[in-house]
Amino acid sequence: MTNRKADVRSVADLKLGEKAVIQSFSDQWMSLKLLEMGCLPGTEVSLHCKAPLGDPICLNVSGYCLSMRKAEAATILVE
């Protein structure tokens, strides 16, 4: 039996070049902002690059690069 809580990952957990599909958001207020930027459930995202200290990060979403803080990326839950 697997613990589904332990299986929950966010965009902040992705490694360089890794792809994932957006499932949901953990912060309702932040989700409105992210939806407006094209981070829709069912959309594939990949981690393009990270700043030297790991924050901010750059994602490939819907054909463009989206830069965001790691704390914001942690609210995007992926599969």
TrEMBL record:
Record-annotated Ferrous iron transporter FeoA-like domain positions: 9-79
Name of the protein described by the UniProt record: Ferrous iron transport protein A
Gene3D superfamilies in the cross-refs: 2.30.30.90
SUPFAM superfamilies: C-terminal domain of transcriptional repressors (SSF50037)
Coiled coil: none
InterPro entries in the record: Fe-transptr_FeoA-like (IPR007167), FeoA (IPR052713), FeoA_core_dom (IPR038157), Transcriptional_repressor_C (IPR008988)
Keywords: Iron
Annotated organism of origin: Larkinella terrae
Superkingdom per UniProt: Bacteria
Molecular functions per Gene Ontology: transition metal ion binding
